[in-house]
Q: What sequence folds into this?
């Protein structure tokens, strides 16, 4: 997604991002300042690796804040639409891997919300793209880094 494009997230994810930013600005900046002050108290700054590390950490931290602010400035809320029989973003889809005969359940989400461990896959991932727009009973082939995958759509919620 380009830097000027919209970022689609759920309302819950927006709240999480806003809390993270708030915490970083309040608590994180205080912690960084404390680390720098502590390192500064150890003497000569020209040969103080702890001070240099604390300043570098502060720079990376401020970069993260800047990126988060940029992301939040482009956020658009997505909401579940009425089920129309097809898989869309925020659909939970039960699929069967036809090669290994295993049933998997995924929720299709925006790239910013993807979390494979909790069953949330991005609509821009190979499997997510393959599932988008499908209906129950459809069989799809997906080109993935692991090779060609074959799935059958069992259920869409």
A:
């Amino acid at each position: 997604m380009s830097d000027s494009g919209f970022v689609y997230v759920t309302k819950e994810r927006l709240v999480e991002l806003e809390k993270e930013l708030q915490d970083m600005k309040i608590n994180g900046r205080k912690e960084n300042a404390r680390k720098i002050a502590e390192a500064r108290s150890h003497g000569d700054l020209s040969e103080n690796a702890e001070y240099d590390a604390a300043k570098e950490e502060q720079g990376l931290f401020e970069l993260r804040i800047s990126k988060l602010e940029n992301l939040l400035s482009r956020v658009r809320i997505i909401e579940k639409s009425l089920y129309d029989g097809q898989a869309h973003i925020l659909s939970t889809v039960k699929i069967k891997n036809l090669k290994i005969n295993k049933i998997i359940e995924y929720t299709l989400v925006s790239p910013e919300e993807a979390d494979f461990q909790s069953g949330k896959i991005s609509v821009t991932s190979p499997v997510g793209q393959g599932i988008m727009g499908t209906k129950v009973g459809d069989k799809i082939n997906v080109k993935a880094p692991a090779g060609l995958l074959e799935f059958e759509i069992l259920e869409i919620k």
Notes: Residues 7-77 form a domain with the Helix Hairpins fold (CATH 1.10.287.180).
